[in-house]
């Protein structure tokens, strides 16, 4: 058996035998080198109560090259792309070491959810939101956990259809702000886009003039 | 090593290398300038070729430095040649050169040992003891066992035929093994894990000597050891000492650095050699190790 397969098999078994870590790893298809990992959102964070799925690809030269991981579940976090699930974490790049395993790497992802690093962002818009108003950021992150990760408060879990999702809450905006510009005749989606892009939240609100927003809306 | 050093090298000084055909008076240069010049020469030769090269005469290295007008290095290489070090074996400058060089050179010595049976038995007993060291410092068995098993298998293969090929280890097989990145890296990783474990198990001895190679800032034991356990991260005196102590290996490092005027400085690690094995001799140029041969 080749060394990579032997190592991956041992790691999967190790994960299965360890009931205390709450990390689960399963095969996606027939290949042992494409896996799906999942873990519960850490307690006392906006991700608590959610279940987070991660796409795992084992490269040819594993464990000498880092494992490739990205979130399947949508996550609102400065170091995770809200669009693609791409993760900004040093151990997945130049700080990788062959002593790290699928389990220890997944545990590091869990820790990343506990301690965002907004100064080294993967998602610049989310990072700006975090820095402008942590409370508002957390509210949005909690809402994402609820609607995408089956977190508490979601009655139907992941089954909530797009229609009932609150697009304003997903964007982390104040509904009153959105309504105000919508009433000027701009489409709701466009208003949400522009306000999100301008980070129209918390202490930033008085700094951005209505003219500026209208200008952006007209450009859109 | 070129990798990490490249990224950290300060902006190149504007003077020396732009000064046209006039020979460079290198003796008056600041160490940093000398370092940068050396780095340029390194970059041309380090990044290509196999992980471990064939043996080459040291005069080749001399001519490279001569072409680069680097007279201090030329003088130092002349000194080495005069003192019987006529050849060297290049190791790829990928940040793992120290571990790959010492690992390869060690196996070459084992192969050449007149009492190979005894040398292999001694080595195997030392290797067995490192399992304990790894376990004690909390390295998971599933992480180290492939690397450890490969190190043991290669050692045993010196006297026992390999079950799949039916042949014992030869220099040719060893070269092929060390030139295959996956195989070669198992040995590099074993040596890295042992180095980190030795530091963690002997914190009192090492903790005040752990500095980041680029920033020179002090590092904590865990941070330093995490770095040691990653591929492509260069090694300095601390790592060499730790590895030699863990495996009871002896190393001599010939430092080329344009510091001393009349001779090349050989550093013996450890100070008092472990009995049984001749030292492996490495040639160090700022940021890189090769194997030096008589």
Automatic annotation (TrEMBL), chain A:
Q: Which Gene3D superfamilies does the record cross-reference, listed alphabetically?
A: DNA helicase RuvA subunit, C-terminal domain, Ubiquitin Conjugating Enzyme
MF annotations from Gene Ontology: ATP binding; ubiquitin conjugating enzyme activity
Instruction: Spell out the catalytic residues.
Output: 88 (glycyl thioester intermediate)
Q: Which SUPFAM superfamilies match?
A: UBA-like, UBC-like
Please state the Enzyme Commission number of this protein.
2.3.2.23
Alphabetized, the UniProt keywords read: ATP-binding, Nucleotide-binding, Transferase, Ubl conjugation pathway
Query: Record's superkingdom?
Result: Eukaryota
Family statement? Belongs to the ubiquitin-conjugating enzyme family.
Q: What name does this protein carry?
A: Ubiquitin-conjugating enzyme E2 1
From TrEMBL, chain B:
The region called Disordered is annotated at 1-25
Quickly give the catalysed reaction: Thiol-dependent hydrolysis of ester, thioester, amide, peptide and isopeptide bonds formed by the C-terminal Gly of ubiquitin (a 76-residue protein attached to proteins as an intracellular targeting signal)
Do you know which CDD domains this protein is assigned to?
Otubain_C65 (cd22749)
EC number(s): the record gives 3.4.19.12
Q: Which Pfam families match?
A: Peptidase_C65
Q: Which PANTHER family match?
A: UBIQUITIN THIOESTERASE OTUBAIN-LIKE, UBIQUITIN THIOLESTERASE PROTEIN OTUB
- Put simply, this protein is called ubiquitinyl hydrolase 1
């Amino acid at each position: 058996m080749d060394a990579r397969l032997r190592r991956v098999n041992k790691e999967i078994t190790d994960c299965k035998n360890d009931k205390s870590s709450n990390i689960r790893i399963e095969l996606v298809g027939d290949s042992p080198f494409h896996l799906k990992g999942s873990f519960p959102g850490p307690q006392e964070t906006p991700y608590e109560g959610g279940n987070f799925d991660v796409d795992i690809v084992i490269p040819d030269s594993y464990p000498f090259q880092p494992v490739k991981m990205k979130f399947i579940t949508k996550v609102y976090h400065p170091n995770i792309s809200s669009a693609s699930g791409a993760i900004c974490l040093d151990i997945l790049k130049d700080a990788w070491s062959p002593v790290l395993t699928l389990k220890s790497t997944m545990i590091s992802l869990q820790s990343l959810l506990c301690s965002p690093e907004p100064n080294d962002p993967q998602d610049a818009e989310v990072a700006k939101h975090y820095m402008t108003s942590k409370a508002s950021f957390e509210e949005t992150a909690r809402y994402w956990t609820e609607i995408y990760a089956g977190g508490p408060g979601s009655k139907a879990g992941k089954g909530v259809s797009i229609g009932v999702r609150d697009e304003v809450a997903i964007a982390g905006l104040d509904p009153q702000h959105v309504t105000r510009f919508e009433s000027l005749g701009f489409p709701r989606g466009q208003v949400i886009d522009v306000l999100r892009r301008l980070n129209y939240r918390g202490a930033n609100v008085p700094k951005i003039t209505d003219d500026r927003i209208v200008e952006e809306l007209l450009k859109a | 090593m070129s990798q990490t050093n490249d990224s950290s090298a300060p902006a190149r000084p504007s003077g020396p290398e732009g000064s046209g055909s006039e020979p460079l008076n290198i003796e008056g240069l600041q160490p940093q300038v000398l370092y940068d010049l050396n780095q340029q020469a390194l970059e041309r030769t380090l990044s290509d070729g196999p992980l471990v090269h064939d043996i080459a005469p040291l005069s080749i290295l001399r001519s490279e430095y001569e072409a680069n007008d680097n007279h201090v290095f030329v003088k130092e290489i002349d000194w080495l040649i005069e003192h019987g070090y006529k050849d060297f074996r290049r190791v790829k400058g990928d940040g793992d050169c120290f571990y790959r060089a010492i690992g390869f050179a060690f196996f070459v010595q084992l192969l050449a040992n007149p009492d190979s049976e005894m040398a292999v038995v001694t080595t195997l007993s030392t290797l067995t003891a490192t399992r304990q060291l790894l376990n004690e410092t909390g390295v998971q068995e599933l992480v180290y066992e492939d690397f450890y098993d490969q190190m043991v298998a290669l050692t045993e293969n010196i006297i026992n035929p390999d079950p799949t090929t039916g042949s014992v280890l030869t220099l040719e097989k060893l070269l092929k093994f060390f030139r295959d990145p996956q195989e070669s890296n198992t040995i590099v990783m074993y040596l890295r894990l042992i180095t980190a474990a030795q530091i963690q198990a002997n914190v009192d001895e090492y903790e005040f000597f752990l500095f980041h190679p680029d920033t020179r800032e002090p590092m904590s034991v865990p941070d330093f050891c995490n770095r040691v356990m990653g591929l492509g991260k260069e090694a300095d005196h601390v790592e060499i000492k730790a590895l030699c102590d863990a495996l009871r290996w002896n190393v001599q490092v010939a430092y080329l650095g344009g510091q001393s005027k009349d001779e090349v400085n050989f550093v013996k690690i450890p100070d008092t050699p472990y009995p049984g094995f001749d030292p492996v001799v490495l040639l160090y140029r700022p940021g890189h190790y090769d194997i030096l041969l008589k």
